[in-house]
TrEMBL record:
Biological process, per Gene Ontology: glyoxylate catabolic process; L-alanine catabolic process, by transamination
Family: Belongs to the class-III pyridoxal-phosphate-dependent aminotransferase family.
Pfam families associated with the record: Aminotran_3 (PF00202)
Entry protein name: Alanine--glyoxylate aminotransferase 2, mitochondrial
Keywords, alphabetical: Aminotransferase, Mitochondrion, Pyridoxal phosphate, Transferase, Transit peptide
Region Disordered, residue ranges: 1-22
A single cellular component GO annotation: mitochondrion
């Protein structure tokens, strides 16, 4: 099993005695790894990398990733993985996508850095192109280096523009880890016992699977929940109930005038949670009646991931006042953006806001190339096509296994919520989740975990995965759940 042999990079020739699903072939040959040992990396990781690094490390036996190409990753031993998590929904068009890499290299050779105190072509080319992807009047762009930074800026803008202070988010949401965005984030795992979240209030997440209300027609997904539905056609009682909860929040927890309502079109870290179809539309109206602006956090759902649309908010038939984005915007290059209206942008003109690296030439060249590639490669269409198929097949596994409670999402923004049993919908405990998670990795597929109780598997791959990759994952996931049930 020589690791530099090209044969080994193809799917390992099928061993007839093995019942392991066979990975689709790949003819890309990674470099042979010659760096430090895994043991040495772990030593340094424990000594010199901050303790959070170990805390967030996935797997009992961590993955030591050496190289990537499109949907594939190779570890230091030359083992190949199908990446269905994309470094947390970030690698949008494929690891080291050749055209994006070329754009970055060209720019690196020409000009690495200068800032907004001068005019340089890439930022103008890029902001015009990005603006062309958004509906009127969302045409003014601030470039940042991360999603937290983008959300911080959006909070500030909303407060300055409205003259109000209070901001509402959903329970279970993640909007960043900076001191300000920690207040938006409504998951205790990411909160610290310091004064945080002044002016931030959360409201019940309209989760039609786990929440108190929900049926079999509520959400905009190829797969509905297993819950019964007694609603008359075209009328969603769950939506009424959840909107009622939002009204209670308005009546009890915030002043009569608010600054903003922040929501992801589909909750990301929360576990691909989807809301009833008309929820955001009604919520936006209520928020605007109270003087607030509506902010769509598209950090995970943007750039074609949800398949049917370029932005997640479009499938809710709403028009936000501010849109924040990061992750997929740069295919892994650190960048983010806030897009808003000229009017809101004007309210931000009272002081000077300066960001040294935001919109640097290399980021702009990368971002611009990512937008081109999404178009040229048909990335959004692929997301819809492969994602819909994947969810339909996963729903068959849900019908077969008692511990798969829900399958949901849109395009390649997919959640598989695991339960103790379908009747209780109680979360599958962490030990069991970890067992399946590790097993799926050992069979060659990287997926993610999320949800308030860590109960949901998350599938958010580079959007270049194929139908063969989807079938391979289904076989792997099926086997890991089957084997898990046998062991119990
Ligand atoms: C929806 C959402 N918003 C904001 C953020 C924060 O982005 P960053 O980690 O780039 O600061 C994240 C990160 O996971 C996210 O998922
Ligand atoms: C799931 O696994 C079981 C047990 O190995 C097998 O009988 C079945 O055909 C598999 N189904 C799919 C869809 O792979």
């Amino acid at each position: 099993h020589a690791q530099d042999s090209p044969l080994c990079q193809k799917s390992a020739l099928k061993d007839p005695s093995s019942d392991l699903p066979e990975m689709p072939p790949c003819d890309f040959i990674p470099d042979k790894y010659k760096g430090m040992s895994k043991e040495r990396m772990m030593q340094i990781r424990k000594q010199n990398c901050n303790p959070m690094t170990m805390k967030v490390t996935s797997y009992k036996t961590p993955a030591f990733i050496h190289q990537g190409h499109m949907q594939w990753l190779w570890d230091v031993d030359g083992k190949r993985y199908l990446d269905l998590f994309a470094g947390v929904a970030t690698v949008s068009v494929g690891h080291c996508h050749p055209r994006v890499t070329e754009a970055a290299v060209d720019q690196l050779k020409r000009l690495w850095h200068t800032t907004n105190i001068y005019a340089y072509p890439p930022i103008h080319e890029y902001t015009e192109k990005l603006a062309s992807h958004l509906p009127d009047p969302l045409k003014v762009i601030y470039l940042t280096n991360s999603g937290s930074e983008a959300n911080d800026l959006a909070m500030l803008m909303a407060r300055l523009h409205t003259g109000n202070y209070d901001i509402i988010t959903f329970r279970g949401s993640y909007h960043g880890g900076s001191p300000q965005t920690m207040g938006l984030t409504s998951n205790s795992a990411y909160k610290y016992p310091i004064a945080n979240g002044l002016g931030c209030t959360n409201t019940m997440c309209p989760d039609v699977f786990r929440g108190p209300w929900g049926g079999s027609h509520c959400r905009d997904s190829p797969v509905q929940t297993i819950r019964d539905c007694g609603c008359a056609q075209g009328h969603c009682m769950a939506n009424d109930q959840y909107i009622g909860q939002l009204k209670e929040t308005f009546a009890t927890s915030v002043p009569s005038r608010i600054a903003a309502f922040f929501a992801e079109p589909i909750q990301g870290v929360g576990g691909a949670v989807q809301y009833p179809k008309n929820y955001l539309k009604e919520a936006y109206k209520l928020v605007r009646e109270r003087g607030g602006v509506c902010i769509a956090d598209e950090v995970q759902t943007g750039f074609g991931r949800t398949g049917g649309h370029f932005w997640g908010f479009q499938s809710h038939d709403v028009l936000p006042d501010i849109v924040t984005m990061a992750k997929g915007i740069g295919n892994g290059f650190p960048m983010g953006a806030v897009v808003t209206t000229a009017e809101i942008a004007a309210s931000f003109g009272k002081g000077v806001h300066f960001n040294t690296f935001g919109g640097n030439p290399v980021a702009c060249a990368v971002g611009s190339s990512v937008l081109d590639v999404i178009k040229e490669d048909g990335t959004q269409e692929n997301s819809l096509h492969v994602g819909t198929y994947l969810m339909t097949e996963l729903a068959k596994l849900r019908d077969k296994y008692e511990i798969i409670g829900d399958v949901r999402g849109k395009g390649l923004m997919i959640g598989v919520e695991m339960v103790k049993d379908k009747a209780s919908r109680d979360p599958l405990p962490p030990d069991a989740m970890n067992e399946i998670f590790e097993d799926v990795k050992d069979m060659g597929v990287l997926i993610g975990k999320g949800g308030v109780y860590g109960q949901t598997f998350r599938i958010k791959p580079p959007m270049c995965i194929t139908m063969d990759d989807a079938n391979f994952f289904i076989a792997v996931f099926n086997k890991s759940i089957h084997d898990f049930m046998e062991r119990r």
